Amino acid sequence: MHDDAQGSLDLSPISAKIIRLSAEIRTMPPERPEFLHTVLCQVGLPRRRPSELFFERRNGKASLLITAGKMYDGDAWVQQIVPYGTKPRLALFHISSEAVRLQSRTIPVGRSLRSFMRRLNLDTNGRSMAAFRQQMNALCACQMQLAYGPRNINAKPVELYDAWTNNGAPGQESVIELSEKFWEELREAAVPLDSRALEGLQHSCLALDIYTWLAHRLHRIKRPSGENITWSNMRAQFGQEYKGREADKDFKKAFNVALRQVREVYPTARIEEVSTGAIRTGFRLLPSPAPVAPTTTFIDMGRISCQ
């Protein structure tokens, strides 16, 4: 995994992967889309570990408040961290997508932690497995509040988490069960995403967040002239974790690297730079096709509106 701020890293292996996936995306439709809740496409989880046991992110009318929970280990309630980074994002993509595909809030997650990580294209060495288990514990224990304008939703993602323990029968696949409220919200507002794009961007939280935001935003723009977004807007939405005297400079550098990668795997995204003289002031978002053609799927008596 590569840190978002380190745009100077040797990205050649990542670039090769993105180029390969970009060629597939340009020539073939996705076999099946991934899904994520519309609010989480606009306001992502923290990218770095918060210093507090809560985290808030806002973007216009959309807001996310996530609070670290506790998990019982058989002897005591253990305080968990706020989930952060790429790992819980990839897990949320997978769990949300499987819930939509299976028409169920009970999601099979493999017979072992290693097998589940392989589904997410993650390394399975000892250190990576320990870090992933920590993030899964954090994700499944946390409290999550989503808001859009005055509408507030208490939507803890996971209701039942008993995965990869010795409680089941030998060889039995573990499951995670979404909370009823989170599942209801997902049924009402799921944004379809291209799984190949997510695979190409999984090295970077910032790139994943930019991609999901554009997947939600661009096809909603109606004015032919588009909508202008300033660097100040981008900094407020995506640069919360950048601190210090060089924060603005570091954020712009990281954002530009991530955006170039996003545009490779979202080739129909129409984005122009906006400048005043020689100074780049932001971007213009133009009406663009969604990365995955919007559809509407009926599940039981509820409806998933693929935004």
Kindly describe this structure.
This protein is α+β, with helices and mostly antiparallel strands and 307 residues long. It folds into two domains: 32-194, no CATH class; 203-285. Helix content is 38%, strand content 23%. It has ten helices and 16 strands. The protein has a four-stranded antiparallel beta sheet with strand order 2-3-7-8. It is globular. Residues 5-9 and 296-307 have low confidence and may be disordered. InterPro entries: RepA_C.
Distinctive features:
alpha+beta, globular, three-stranded antiparallel beta sheet, 2 domains, RepA_C, four-stranded antiparallel beta sheet, single chain, 307 residues, Replication protein RepA, 16 strands, 10 helices
- Uncertain ranges: 5-9, 296-307
The rounded distance between the terminal residues' Cα atoms is 30 Å
Q: What spatial order of strands do you see in the largest sheet? A: 2-3-7-8
Number of domains: 2
Structural class: alpha+beta
Shape: globular
Average predicted local confidence, pLDDT? 88
Strand content: 15-25%
Number of DSSP helical runs: 10
Main β sheet profile = 4 strands, antiparallel
Helical fraction equals: 25-40%
* Cα Rg: 19 Å
- Write down the secondary-structure element order: HEHEEEEHEHHEEEEHEHHEHHEEEE
